[in-house]
Amino acid sequence: MSHKARAMLIGAVAGAFLGVAFAWVASDGVKDEDGGGKTALQALGPMDYFSLGIAILTLARQFGGMLKKA
After folding, report:
1. Residue-wise over 30-53: b if at least 16 C-beta within 10 A, else e?
2. Other Cβ atoms closer than 10 A to 26
3. CA separation for the pair 39, 55 (Å, rounded)
4. DSSP label at 37?
5. How many whole angstroms separate alpha carbon 40 and alpha carbon 31?
6. Are 39 and 27 spatial neighbours (Cβ–Cβ below 8 Å)?
7. How many Å is the Cα radius of gyration of the chain?
């Protein structure tokens, strides 16, 4: 298996796991006393999405730096 194909396979598997984890967290509801509930995505504000995006970009940058060292 070539280096590029292996990297694509690892990226696809890692992306699938991250997607499943995010969907699990997003679908998990928070119950209130009155029986109503809010999903995790409804509870997030715009700043939370911004910080999540920055964290993902930082992770990608660190991963790219690790690959350059190898």
Report:
1. eeeeeeeeeeeeeeeeeeeeeeee
2. 13
3. 22
4. E
5. 11
6. yes
7. 17
What are the pLDDT tens digits along the chain (70 aa)? 888 888 889 889 988 998 888 788 777 665 655 556 666 667 778 898 899 889 989 988 998 888 788 6
Q: What are phi and psi of 29, to 5 degrees?
A: -90, 155
Helix segments in 1-70, DSSP class H = 3-27, 40-43, 46-69
Distance CA 68, CA 34 (A): 53
pTM above 0.90, yes or no: no
> Residue 31: left (phi > 0), alpha (psi -120 to 50), or beta?
beta
